[in-house]
Design goal:
There is one protein chain. This protein has 19 residues and is mainly alpha-helical. The protein has one helix at residues 2-18. The longest helix has 17 residues, at 2-18. The radius of gyration is 9 Å and the shape is rod-shaped.
């Protein structure tokens, strides 16, 4: 549950870096 939240935040952060 916590790991899923971290993964979700990491994905958003990665997408933010791409733009």
């Amino acid at each position: 549950m916590l790991l899923d939240l971290v993964t979700h935040c990491f994905c958003i952060y990665h997408l933010f870096l791409l733009f």
